[in-house]
Amino acid sequence: MKRRDFTKAVGSGAFALLLSNGALSARQAKPQVAITMDDFEVSKLSKSEADKRTQAILAALHSHKNLQAAGFVCGRRVDNENGQEVLSAWDQAGHLICNHTYSHWYYHRRSVAEFSEDILRAEAILKNYRHFTKRFRFPMLKEGDTLERRDGIRTFLRAQGYKQGYVTIDASDWYIDERLTARLKQVPGANLQPYRDFYLQHIWERANYYDDLSRKVLGRSVKHTLLIHYNLLNELFLGDLLTMFERKGWQLINAEEAFTDAIFEREPKILPAGESIIWALAKESGKFDKLLRYPAEDSIYEKPKMDKLGL
Fold first, then answer.
1. Apex CA 59: angle with CA 230 and CA 124, to 5°?
2. Separation of alpha carbons 117 and 75, rounded Å
3. Strands (E) located in the chain
4. Coil, strand, or helix at residue 297?
5. For 180-201, how does the pLDDT look when each residue is reduced to its tens digit (9 = 90+)?
6. pTM as predicted
7. CATH no. for residue 271?
8. In terms of CB atoms within 10 Å, which of 47, 134, 248, 272 comes out highest?
9. Phi-psi region for residue 70, left (φ > 0), alpha (ψ -120 to 50) or beta?
């Protein structure tokens, strides 16, 4: 039935109501989120520790409908035999392997030429894996503090065929992991339930913040990419994290699908450049400064909360 015929059949008022409800349904659709995991610090682990961590993380992803994640790999942290085995397991499980530089430098302290060479150095280690994908993510999400750095590296990445591996949901799981690891060194049998609970609550708060910001800035919920790390915290609790999202009504999606969202083609013109892509677009608009803090995520925000809880 054509639209004009349907309008006659139900009446213009009813048709308008249906359109309104449809738009409302679109706005209320389940938020979608993919897992992206940074760094892959293997150099400080024994072979048994690396194997255990990798298998736990892969098992958590597999148990949730064989969810495909994206790993943003720091070259120097896997430039050893353990690292090769970890990446081989990740690759064989079908997860994306992406570039996170070799040295994990803070870009604002390096030249475009130095940083470009470091990206290529990482690529030399990663490129032979079957699921290597030319997506790039900046260490600390810092993309340049000057026009020369920001635009120079963007030009380099395009020339090399790279696309951005932006984070939409930024978080500080790395800091929670630091505190948990320190506690276990002090008290090997420490109760880890409070760390699990704090972690899940932290991610849930940040996910809702960035999803709400997405709706305000773009008028929709994007296909989200969550930033977490290859660490003990996620060895222990990644499965709980994935279950939390599902129970709270979010849809887990593959990383490859998430990166089809048009937001990953954007290049916000802000300085300093970086943070979550949603944060950056909000900053670029000039309309949401009251909702933004800088840096967007860091230990300074979580330390007082964890101190108060004795974690």
1. 45
2. 12
3. 32-39, 70-73, 96-99, 132-136, 142-144, 163-164, 223-229, 251-252, 273-274
4. coil
5. 999 999 999 999 999 999 999 9
6. 0.91
7. 3.20.20.370
8. 272
9. beta
